[in-house]
Amino acid sequence: MGRLVVVEGGNPFFFNVVLSREAIRAVGIIEEVAKVFREENVPILLFKANVPPRGVEGEVRIIVSADLRDEKHAERIVQKLRRIRYVSRVEYAKPIMPGVGVDAWSHPQMLHGDRALVLSEIYMREIMAFGWKGIGPGFAGLMYRAFFEAGRKMYDELYAKLAKTREDFIKLAEARARLLGWGVLEVVELTEDKAVFRIYDNIECMSLKGIEGAENSMLRGLIAGVLSGYWKTDVYHIKPAETKCIARGDPYCQLECRREKYEPLV
């Protein structure tokens, strides 16, 4: 994911260090990059490494942000970084305005080979408020079905390839929910005909607070869609229910899915 750094009264420069694929197995590369900034006596504000998954196009890169004196200082650092093993290219970006630096290279945003769109909480709140107040239950039906289909596709393209056991499926589901920003997912129960999920800090339902009658629809559809792949069934044979909800004052949301006949609104 891309990054933005704000330093009041500072000059946050960004550096893009591109490496050859051989660097993936090399030991000490990150240490060598960090050493350059230590030798220059500048604080590192952000440091991240990106290695595309096997079979996915993309560059092996290290992104660094540091508070520098001026552009000449940045150019000196670039010259040092270029001498590091396996480094094929080094670029830098000046602050876009006083005290504000931006990662200029991490586009498009990617998550395990999929292009990602980052929506902050303010967008989620407005989408939920407009949908529920302006459209009503039909909005929930549409969101549920759309996210169900997305979840099923996600299962076919990711879960089916990576999760070989029930335990693998649970670990991957819990990790993906957290990485995608939905909240902290806990799989409480998973059998051949029933599944129970708890979601703490659920961004969707936190956005529903104060909206009368509103309930979880997007995450419920996403989970049901993934589960349909695991159970090898379809949208008409998974019955979802939200038994607890943060929007109603509960400490977490709880979704229960049963493998039985169901008629979705859409």
Please explain how this structure is put together.
- This protein is of the alpha+beta class and 266 residues long.
- It is built from seven helices and twelve strands.
- The longest helix has 26 residues, at 137-162.
- The chain is elongated, with a radius of gyration of 23 Å.
- The two termini are 33 Å apart.
Poorly predicted parts: none
Distance between the termini: 33 Å
What is the rounded Rg? 23 Å
Which superfamily, in CATH terms, is the homologous superfamily of the largest domain? Trafficking protein particle complex subunit 3
Shape: elongated
Secondary-structure arrangement, i.e. CATH architecture of the largest domain: 2-Layer Sandwich
The share of residues in extended strands comes to: 15-25%
The total of beta strands comes to 12
Structural class: alpha+beta
Give the strand line-up of the largest sheet: 3-4-2-5
Number of domains: 2
Report the CATH topology name of the largest domain: Muramoyl-pentapeptide Carboxypeptidase, domain 2
Count of runs of 4 or more consecutive helical residues? 7
Top CATH class of the largest domain: Alpha Beta
What portion of residues is helical?
25-40%
- On the 0 to 100 scale, the average pLDDT is 92
What is the makeup of the main sheet? 4 strands, antiparallel
